[in-house]
Amino acid sequence: APEAIQSAHTALTDHGLTARIVPVSYASHCPHVEPLHAELTGVTIDPHAASTAFYSSTRQQTIPGSE
């Protein structure tokens, strides 16, 4: 529901977290994202250490967040 998405976005940004709503009308984990592959792989990501503890449920430990 769009209201739930807006509510989550507002709650995150009100707490000083960076969040944005991606304007799509489909699930971003489906085959519809294939046409965006080139654009998305061209995005530069600058990983850095987290300012708060980041717990990895995969590794079952706290990690720096720069991976």
Describe this structure in words.
The protein has 67 residues and is α+β, with helices and mostly antiparallel strands. The chain has helices at residues 2-14, 37-41; strands at 54-56, 61-63. It has a two-stranded antiparallel ribbon with strand order 1-2. Strand 1 (54-56) and strand 2 (61-63) form a beta hairpin. The protein is extended. The mean pLDDT is 81.
In brief:
The chain is an alpha+beta fold and 67 residues long. It has helices at 2-14, 37-41, and strands at residues 54-56, 61-63. Strands 1-2 form a two-stranded antiparallel sheet.
What key attributes describe this structure?
alpha+beta; 2 helices; 9% strand; extended
Helix content: 25-40%
| Overall pLDDT level | 81
Sheet of most strands = 2 strands, antiparallel
Q: Report the oligomer.
A: single chain
N- to C-terminal separation?
A: 33 Å
Cα Rg: 15 Å
What's the topology here?
Elements: H1 2-14, H2 37-41, E1 54-56, E2 61-63
Antiparallel strand pairs: 1-2
